[in-house]
Amino acid sequence: MALNQPPKLANRLLRWFCKPQYLEDIQGDLEEEYYDRLESPTQKNNSAWYWWQIVKLFRNGIIRQFQPINSTQKEISMFKNYIKIGLRNLWKYKMGTAINVIGLSTGGAAFVLIALFIKDELKYDQHHQNADNIYRLTVKNFTSEGALSRHWAFASAGHAERFKEDYPEVIKATRFYPWAFPDLLVEDRKFPAEQVVFTDPDVFDMFTFPFIEGSAESAFSTEQSLVLTETSAIRLFGNDWQTQGVIGKRVTLQRDGLNAPFTVSGVMEDMPEHQHFHFEYLAPIRFIEQVFGESSMSNVTGNYNWLTYLMLQNGANPTTIESQKDAFFDKYVGQFSSGGDAKDFYDFELQPLQSIHLYSNLESEIETNGSIQQVYIFAIVAILLLIVACINYMNLATSHFSRRMKEVGVRKVLGALRTTLIKQFLTEAFLVNLLAFPIALILAELALPFLNDFMGKSLGLNISSNLDLLFGLIALLFLVAILSGSYPSVFLSRINLTQALKGESSINSNKWNFRNWLVTFQYGVTIALIFALAVIESQLHYVQNTDPGYEREQLVSVRLSRNINSLKTFKNELLNLPNVEKAAYASRIPTGRLADSWGASFHQGDSTTNINFRLPFIWIDEDFLKTFEIELVAGSNFTSDMDMIQDSVGYYLINESAAKALGYTNPHDIVGKKINYGPYDDQTYQSGRILGVTKDFHFESMHTSITPMIMLKGDNMRTICLKLKGNNQAGTLSSIEDLWYQFDPENTISYRYVDDRFNEQYQSEMRLSTMIKVFTSVAILIGCLGLIGMVAFIIETKNKEIGIRKVLGASAGNIAMKIGYRFLILIGIASLIAIPGTFFIVSEWLQGFVYRTSIAVWMILLPAAVVIFVTLLSVGIQTIKASMINPASILKTE
Questions:
Q1: Of 93, 243, 398, 860, which has the fewest Cβ atoms less than 10 A away?
Q2: Can you say whether the dihedral through the CA atoms of 389, 391, 394, 399 is positive or negative?
């Protein structure tokens, strides 16, 4: 049995260090004594004894002499030789080296930049300790036919508490209520704020918000506590806020006549960039409950202005909660008094926190999110560019190898193995990549400021402080070296000895080979990028030039401050300026989002029918339609002497889509019909009549269909829009600023061109288009460099053939077509492969637009035409250069 034998590992150790002349005797004596000990009942731990005897044999007379391993020395010597020969060849073939280095460094720089962008996009919301268990609650609204009408990123005020009470899986819940554009008063200084956000105490337990001063436990000790971020603390109290001791300082919140004193209770670090929401002022939600009243805080089917997050138990499945929506709405809403079950028209969905930035693009998103689709597109492009750069090296390397046939033959005669040759050529590939690698990093570093400015990022290489990035770049270096050098090294090392010594190879034959497939792939990538770019540019041109249903040229929107008390006087003074043609007030303007919506019931004949979906609304004045040149197709517009509620009756304008949603295809038939409209449920609706119907216009972007909407006349205005005329817009804007400061000397005017706001709706697509342009240019550059190198070598190897053809009367054009014919075939095959796949991808991308262009024939033909032009240009230049050489100088040696 193995248990009765000496330890095998001990014997192996003995054989390794013991002198051969002593080994047999020593091992025999040890084993004999070992077996004697086994037979003795008093001897124990025999294996340990055996090991101890082996250890005691470690002495000078027993240990053999160890000599350096010759094979290791040989490998080191050979490796030095590989490097020496590789450097000589790089210097010898300068043009090929330069082309390869430029191609690899350009492709590598593009890959690094895209990788940094993708890594940055994937980091969002991962810093929160409870990120895996936090979900955002979103609400859906359906029509009576079951079609999705709205999907809000926000929920109602009552959802959070109801979920905590009803579902044991929900252990914490918090809401964010952004209160827009208040003023903050510190002593006698006033600071306009973008928003103050009211939230629940659970927020500091759910999210990771480190405090600089104060603590999460004491942050909301009173209902009028105020938590600042570091940036807002500097804004309110200056750069020396820490030495002032801001905890306990008073900050007065002013809005709509409200003057509420708050006490600073803490200062947090600024919210990280990689987070889908950013707030600077946090206050307890208990305060806003007092402002709105407790009754408004229990609603679950209206007032979708509350960003709501739930924290589930570890291992809890969110679909378990989502599946119980019918019971939820039955319990808290039931039936509307005008008919219909709430559960048939409402649903909710839980979005994982870490997926919001890339996977969510709902109505009223708190900030503009990214797109997983773009991440996938950029990832594919990065990989393809890197492969194209590697293929460029492979093609040039294999096409130039005929110069080294005899070298390979001599090496084989002298006994070089195929593995030795592979190592040689892989070393050369590594040297080229080693030259390209630092250049790629330099190019990436130089391009980063432009990329950051363009994408709104703060990306950086920071290799010294980022070990993950360092190891990733080193791994990338080796990967690209192996990828680019593998095929050339294997290809050349298998060449027949006789062919090698004669300098012959099938490499330059007309047969189809793997190198042709590589060139085809390279062409295919370029064709795919040009095709995608053509479709994206066409769609952008379509959305930017299709009539949105309103005028946006020379329109300026001015954000109103609350210090302007007389809106009518301010508007009249603006209209008195010489180059202000029209002016109109509105709560929101086209190019924005229809974030506000109320419910409605509609009178059709003798019946009152709940319309089963919420109608978004905006507040406007009587000049809104005229200023934006929105057509009124039926009924009449508001008048200056008309209030929204007049003689206890409301008056509303709707768009054509709303008329159709209410069952009227002819807009004239709905004018004068009665509609009840209000914020919460049918108990709070205001009775009114439809005054007029406007032609449909794109209030939101063309990503979405035109939404049924209602327009109310009122004074709840946030913006005034001005139609300018004349060419001196700078002077007009200066006059507007002067007038502004007469009405509000405390606040800086904030204005924007409506056309700029319109273009911002497609900012993501514009960025994608620009990036694709850059990457397409990189692909064409790499391809052209490789093509020039290959054509130059082909002409060099065929110079005698070219000389004979010239003697026989061939023109430079004939010779160019002879050489370029093979490339044209490859372009045709590449088009047949690349176009269908890219067609599918861009078609899916176009599905993100409700209003979209069609893929025209010219978009399919353009990529091949561009590639053919570039190819023939490259071939033509090289051929003309070769044809200028006197044939006699080429043929004189024959």
A1: 243
A2: negative
